[in-house]
């Protein structure tokens, strides 16, 4: 047997005995598996005595410095810098659009409590008598308006509408009377009925727009008056339209400012979430690299190739049927454990008829076989 290789194997075993934690290295997993197949118990990784001694000495260093009068403080290991907490994101309150309402506005009206007025079936086909009756009522309403009798005009228009088959113009005329009687909700209801019959009724849009303006519903008033002026421009309505536009422009700007701030906050939240995820991913990556570095550093000083001294071949193939049969023999397993504890005992097993052939085969697979002149070795 090559004494150099035996000494290398002995050195390897001594290294493992001194540092059993090396068996946990991935490159020595095959050897750990081999030992466990022999019935060996692999100890848990514990702090080596040298590391414990070093740690103990480090703990005593501050007291030693104090004894010798060394006033220089011991610098603690740098800690990870804590992330500065970012200020919370606070959404703005919804804008109060009522600030544009003027309680002292002389044109302002409160919603009335009276119910809306009834109307007859608009899809009714009138006979000649009904048509004559309706025409007479409309004429009486016009005359009442000229006399300034708004209540009578309202009564006549209502009777005419209740006959049925009312036109968009008839509803718009009664809406105008209702608005003059300070009944904006009823006027808007008739304007709605007129627009259902004629979506291009400029008069209906105008009456509803003025009603909304007097209720200080600036957005609706702006929309209705703009539609009315586009369909049928009226010089008298233009002044009201400009007044409403000024109010609406301020409200629209207030809404835009609010929406912009909300969108900026949403964008900031997304940016913070992305930053948070990136930071977490970076920490996980750094922790993984640190763990990999720790594993690599624990193998420092261990020769490359997995076996001390570059022993060729590594461990034999445990799938060999002869080896499997030999390792099932309790005597062989006991001998292998004895040799693992003391490699020098290998010599006494070379002449054993059961263990010797196994050792010869193992050594052959691990690097060239056993020299034929080795004392006690079986000869071929």
TrEMBL record:
Residues 44-55 have a biased composition (Low complexity). The keyword Repeat applies. Signal peptide: none annotated. Keywords: Repeat, TPR repeat. Residues 320-359 form the STI1 domain. Residues 42-129, 272-325 are annotated as: Disordered. Residues 79-88 have a biased composition (Acidic residues). Residues 60-78 have a biased composition (Basic and acidic residues). InterPro entries: Hip_N (IPR034649), STI1/HOP_DP (IPR041243), STI1_HS-bd (IPR006636), TPR-like_helical_dom_sf (IPR011990). Pfam families: HipN, STI1-HOP_DP. Residues 303-313 have a biased composition (Gly residues). GO terms for molecular function: Hsp70 protein binding; protein dimerization activity. This is Hsc70-interacting protein, putative.
